[in-house]
């Protein structure tokens, strides 16, 4: 049978709505063409400052060099850091395979598919004229020279002239497709440098939202004093600054992804493929133009939102983090994962590949042959079939071929790195079967939980192996075994009220002898290690939960907030709030 073509999609934060839509368009079109799709997606966009843990997400993109790929779709705009973009450019160039970019600028080596939407933007301008009767309308477009910005500006002038309305160069301004330019533009309106219009049409939603927020801050009401529209529908709900719902035109990111795939397919094969069905959209009515919003979702859309909401509730009301963190072995962890993956909406297949160095550290059950560096340890699907540690070792470079070997239909997988800082554990692969679908943000949180659990397993395995001298040479082998067990309990339950008198009772030795032997065996005093274990748990809770700092202090065994804060600052060099701001879940979500 002829080998299916495999296309790699290079992106980040693909749970974002507009990126998700592009990927769904790519997958829907690839199904029509009979091609496999592998999405290599970082959970972060590498926004400055790039923290070390985030930087190591880049290791996933080494798979770009896998010879199983036949071409790539590259969403360069998904990466906020120019040095990361350059590294990806270099990797993609080294492959010698065709690369199609998504809505990017001109590139010396790669092709580019851009969204051509002047007709849709013209509909918004027409709406302000015909529905609301506005005559003096300004336009705030994107950066000068960018094709999308120039196309939308040209559409604005065309509609104004077609309706016999006056407009000149002073009626338009170039922006940045971000928040800085609209704030400056608002100041020009507020100061009177620009005469106040009846309406402003903005070339994207982010600029429109920032403009409304700046105007409202100065006491200018939208839409009563000035009507505003956005465009493209790409503003995430969590990023909204103003309280006014936005009139916009949802940009067809789905169609952009489908068109990019079709162009890439033609380059790879010299043939064209059937077009996937187009997702039609229309003006999205909000209050910012003066209309009364109309919610006209169809039943299918409402059902999908209810389903996603239900899965989100299941996920955040589950105890999956604590269950994963308290598994005793790799097998237990894998079985738990197989039983909890239902928390991901629409999932079909889930696989975990772990590298040999991690497996050899945590499990004596795995015997990998030489020159192999990866192993599939979990495979599960909606039918409930799953495996524990597999005897299917492979090189990391064989993973793509392995995932795409299904003979009956094309495969589509999302790959995520499993790592804790520089320690790479392996790769997780998620598929929605033949459904053109993308995961929700909760899946990224689950991946973070898995990484924490794998890190915990590796540390516990190292702790159990730690023995400065062999037991047969110990001064008191029985005491050594007792202390080893107690130390294990301290790592798992550092919040308990541990005390030297209690440990003396449990080991039946004197206080001074206990303290001397503990330090001899483990290199630190009992309380030095207890502090270390408590702070380790505190850092895990600060970075992965929304508990208050006072709650975390109690959960880690501290009687007072002040003692907890003082000890944390002394040992870690930063305050609790600084640590959470840098590594916490809420901050990571905001940066996402």
- Amino-to-carboxy terminus distance: 42 Å
Number of domains: 4
Q: What's the CATH class label of the largest domain?
A: Alpha Beta
Q: Mean of residue pLDDT?
A: 87
**Structural Rg:** 28 Å
CATH fold-level label of the largest domain: Rossmann fold
- Helix segment tally: 22
Explain how this protein is built:
Residues 468-473 and 586-592 have low confidence and may be disordered. The protein folds into four domains: 6-115 and 254-296, Rossmann fold, CATH 3.40.50.2300; 118-251, Response regulator (Rossmann fold); 308-388 and 434-463, no CATH class; 465-591, Orthogonal Bundle (Arc Repressor Mutant, subunit A), CATH 1.10.10.60. The protein has 592 residues and is of the alpha/beta class. The strands form two sheets. Strands 1, 2, 3, 4, 5, 10, 11, 12, 13, 14 and 15 form an eleven-stranded mixed beta sheet that branches. A four-stranded parallel beta sheet has the order 7-6-8-9, with helices on both faces. The chain is built from 22 helices and 15 strands. Helix 4 packs parallel to helix 5 (147-162), helix 18 packs across helix 21 (576-583) and helix 21 (576-583) packs across helix 22. It is globular, with a radius of gyration of 28 Å.
């Amino acid at each position: 049978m002829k080998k299916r073509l495999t296309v790699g999609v290079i992106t980040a934060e693909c749970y974002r709505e507009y990126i998700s839509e592009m990927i769904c368009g790519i997958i829907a079109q690839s199904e029509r063409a009979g091609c496999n799709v592998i999405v290599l997606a970082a959970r972060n966009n590498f926004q400055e400052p790039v923290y070390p843990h985030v930087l190591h997400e880049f290791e996933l993109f080494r798979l770009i060099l896998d010879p199983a790929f036949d071409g790539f779709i590259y969403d360069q705009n998904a990466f906020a850091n120019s040095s990361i973009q350059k590294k990806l450019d270099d990797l993609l160039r080294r492959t010698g395979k065709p690369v199609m970019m998504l809505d990017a600028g001109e590139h010396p080596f790669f092709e580019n598919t851009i969204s051509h939407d002047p007709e849709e933007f013209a509909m918004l301008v027409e709406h302000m004229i015909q529905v609301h009767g506005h005559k003096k309308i300004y336009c705030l477009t994107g950066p000068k020279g960018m094709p999308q910005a120039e196309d939308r500006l040209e559409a604005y002038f065309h509609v104004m002239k077609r309706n016999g309305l006056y407009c000149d160069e002073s009626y338009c301004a170039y922006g940045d497709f971000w928040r800085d330019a609209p704030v400056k533009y608002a100041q020009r309106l507020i100061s009177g440098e620009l005469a106040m219009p009846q309406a402003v049409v903005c070339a994207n939603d982010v600029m429109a939202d920032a403009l409304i927020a700046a105007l409202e801050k100065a006491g200018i009401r939208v839409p009563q004093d000035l009507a505003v529209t956005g465009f493209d529908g790409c503003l995430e709900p969590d990023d909204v600054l103003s309280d006014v719902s936005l009139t916009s035109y949802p940009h067809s990111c789905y169609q952009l992804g489908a068109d990019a795939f079709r162009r890439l397919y033609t380059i790879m094969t010299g043939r064209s493929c059937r077009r996937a069905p187009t997702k039609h959209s229309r003006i999205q009515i909000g209050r910012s133009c003066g209309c009364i919003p109309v919610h006209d979702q169809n039943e299918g859309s409402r059902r999908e939102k209810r389903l996603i909401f239900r899965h989100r509730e299941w996920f955040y009301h589950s105890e999956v983090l604590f269950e994963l963190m308290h598994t005793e072995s790799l097998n237990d962890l894998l079985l738990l994962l197989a039983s909890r993956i239902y928390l991901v909406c629409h999932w079909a297949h889930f696989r975990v590949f772990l590298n040999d160095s991690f497996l050899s550290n945590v499990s004596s059950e795995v015997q990998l042959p030489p020159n192999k560096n990866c192993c599939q340890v979990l495979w599960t699907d909606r039918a409930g079939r799953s495996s524990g540690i597999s005897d299917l070792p492979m090189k990391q470079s064989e993973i793509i071929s392995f995932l795409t070997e299904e003979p009956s239909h094309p495969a589509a997988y999302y790959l995520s790195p499993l790592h804790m800082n520089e320690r790479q554990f392996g790769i997780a692969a998620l598929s929605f079967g033949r459904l053109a679908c993308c995961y929700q943000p909760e899946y990224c949180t689950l991946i973070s939980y898995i990484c924490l659990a794998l890190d915990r397993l590796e540390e516990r395995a190292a702790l159990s192996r730690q023995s400065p001298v062999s037991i047969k040479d110990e001064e008191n082998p029985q005491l050594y075994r007792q202390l080893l067990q107690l130390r294990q309990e301290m790592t798992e339950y550092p919040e308990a009220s541990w005390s030297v008198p209690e440990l003396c009772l449990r080991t039946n030795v004197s206080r001074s002898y206990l303290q001397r032997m503990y330090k001899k065996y483990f290199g630190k005093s009992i309380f030095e290690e207890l502090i270390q274990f408590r702070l380790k748990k505190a850092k895990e809770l600060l970075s992965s939960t929304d508990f208050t700092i006072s709650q975390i202090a109690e959960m880690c065994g501290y009687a007072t907030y002040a003692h907890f804060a003082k000890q944390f600052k002394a040992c870690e060099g930063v305050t609790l709030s600084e640590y959470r701001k840098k590594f916490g879940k809420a901050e990571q979500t905001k940066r996402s």
